[in-house]
Specification:
Layout (H helix, E strand, L loop, with lengths): L1 H21 L8 H8 L13 H7 L38 H5 L11 H5 L16 H7 L9 H16 L15 E4 L8 H6 L21 H6 L4 E4 L9 H11 L4 E5 L2 H10 L4 H8 L7 H8 L8 E3 L22 E6 L8
Parallel strand pairs: 1-2, 2-3
Antiparallel strand pairs: 3-5, 4-5
Length: 348
């Protein structure tokens, strides 16, 4: 009996891996957007991937430090411990678009809010949510396909995608609302936060807090009084750290909309089965002395039967993630998962 069960599980695992590999073409969707220009420079015919770092380096966009503008990244060698992601956020003055992007003007995704407010330019109509894609984004922003901007834009646009999935992103650009969003587990995306501020300095305010409450049971009362509109995380790795258990528990208990992105769908599938569907068990083990209301317990119990939809992110990094330990297709911000849904039909 044990051998039969093992063989059945093994066959199911093989089938699942085969299914993920068959979905690999999804991760090729953004590639034509930029690789029309890049394919002559670096192409691997064996796996249809592109050495995008080599392309960046050939254009002076690959390195560490302020001289690389928004393209700065952690060094690959011994100086890595000395690098602090997001160090440019601490500067008194931030880069403008030209200095930050370090590309020709026609390759920069301009969006001049001042010109719009003065009536000197008309706000371009964004594509509907059902048509979100890199191709539509390029058309909307009148951005040439040979712009490398998408190599950084996947961070802020993935945040927008998550807000859309939670029902918090208004489809009309003329409509504004105040949102307080906690972006958790930040690392290299800190270097890209200023991109979102470039054309919208009057509409977006970002803060790095030194005093925000930790997401654990000892800070429940504080979080209840300062509850954000959403909890987001990029390239989360939910099964790689126990701290995410408390984050997901709190998002359920306090009914805070929560959504994440991840490299691999198998990581998200594992998180759903081993963590999210077992939150009631985790709550009993990790919070034995925390008394919850009937409604709060109900929100945790709902995770046993919730439909945790895993979707391909249309604004993922344009290309596969190198040196991945996962089987099947992977990429930065490749897949999305809603942990705690927002209010339905927030916008018409």
């Amino acid at each position: 009996m044990a051998t039969t069960m093992h063989n059945a599980e093994h066959a199911e695992s093989i089938a699942e891996v085969a299914e993920r590999l068959s979905r690999g073409e999804h991760l090729d969707l953004p590639l034509p957007t930029i690789c029309i220009a890049c394919q002559k420079e670096q192409t691997s015919k064996s796996n249809r991937t592109y050495e995008l770092n080599m392309v960046r380096a050939s254009r002076g966009l690959h390195g560490s430090g302020s001289e690389f503008g928004w393209w700065t990244q952690a060094p690959c060698c011994g100086d890595h411990p000395k690098y602090m992601p997001g160090f440019q956020l601490l500067e008194e003055e931030h880069f403008g678009d030209e200095v930050g992007w370090k590309m020709a003007k026609d390759l920069i995704p301009w969006l001049d809010q001042a010109a719009f407010s003065k009536g000197l330019a008309k706000v371009p109509i964004a594509p509907p949510p059902s048509e979100q894609s890199w191709t539509k984004y390029h058309e909307w922003r009148n951005l040439p396909v040979n712009s490398l901007a998408v190599l950084l834009l996947h961070y802020p646009l993935s945040v927008y995608r998550l807000l859309h999935l939670l029902g918090l992103a208004h489809p009309a650009p003329s409509k504004k609302r105040h949102l307080k969003v906690h972006l958790l587990g930040v690392e290299e995306e800190l270097d890209c936060l200023l991109i979102t501020e470039g054309g919208w300095r009057r509409t977006i305010r970002m803060e790095l807090s030194r005093s925000a409450a930790f997401y654990d049971d000892s800070h429940l009362s504080i979080l209840l009084g300062e509850k954000p509109d959403a909890l987001l995380s990029l390239n989360t790795g939910p099964t790689q750290s126990d701290s995410w258990r408390s984050v997901f528990l709190i998002s359920r208990v306090l009914s805070i909309p929560c959504a994440i992105t991840e490299y691999s769908d198998i990581e998200l599938r594992t998180a759903v089965e081993l963590m999210l569907r077992g939150l009631h068990v985790i709550q009993a083990i990790q919070w034995p002395n925390v008394r919850l209301s009937r409604a709060e317990n109900h929100r945790i119990d709902q995770t046993r039967d919730d439909n945790f939809a895993i979707e391909v992110n249309p604004f993922m990094y344009p290309g596969p993630r190198p040196q991945s330990i996962y089987s099947g297709p992977t990429s930065l911000n490749a897949y999305t998962l809603i942990v705690t849904p927002g209010k339905p039909k927030l916008f018409p």
